[in-house]
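Box 3.1 A note on notation
Throughout this textbook, protein chains are presented in two layers. The first layer is the amino acid sequence; the second is a token string describing backbone geometry. Keep the layers aligned when reading.
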Amino acid sequence: MLNILFIFSLMVVSVVGHGRVLQPPSRASMWRSGFPTPHNYDDDGLNCGGFYRQYAINKGKCGICGDAYDMKPPKSHELGGKYGQGIIVSNFEPEQIFTVTVEITAYHRGYWYFKICPNPKSNRQSCFDKYPVELATGGINFYPPKGGVYNVKYRLPKGLVCDHCVLQWRYVAGNNWGFCGNGTSGLGCGNQETFGACSDISISENSIDTDARPVKFATASNDISEDLNRILNLLRKVTAKPKYKKTKPKPNQKKKRNHRKPRHDTRPSKRKKEWMFI
């Protein structure tokens, strides 16, 4: 029995890998893009609670956003949790080709994929499994050759429209040694460490991309009034009449005075003098 446990421990030795979704920013990484959300400094380490917890306790299951499966709801990164605040980070058009930015901070082989659930309140993996996101070049899984930042193009699922969708990221590492299922064993076979993340997006016609600025769904009357005030202020600026600068009329220029004295005529008159004789 001890020999079996020893061999098994050799096969499941796990070296921690790390990764995060920067665009569209995940719930754990939104603060890095300027969103007013709590800071999660371990946003690249959402590994389903760890290898042992995922496989020995939860039988391989993981929370939809990378939290431990046995964590009490609402889980930290699910809607209603500490980081799941329902803030839409990107708007897309149906079937749009868009770019995802993923950072692998510690490379341990493996691959990642994306899926979408159109119901933000659902915490069931089956909802995501219905809408896998394909690479623009075809296929589902992306195999990064090394660590670093990757900008990868994807195409949204055909016919999917939603005011609030959840984009799920799964990174399955490949650095563990395990059984391959064909009677052999090798690196990358068997149970592997898994990472996860969730981003809140919307897919609608004539959408405006908001990657560069935070957009929050109003959750209280104060939020609604603040949004209305911003809109009214913008309308006032657009419709306001232009103000013309008032200028004082220029004073009339006075005619230049002639300071020369009039010249007396000293020339002799041409008229003949008339002499009067008495």
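The chain has one domain: 19-222. Confidence is low (pLDDT under 50) at residues 1-15, 210-225.
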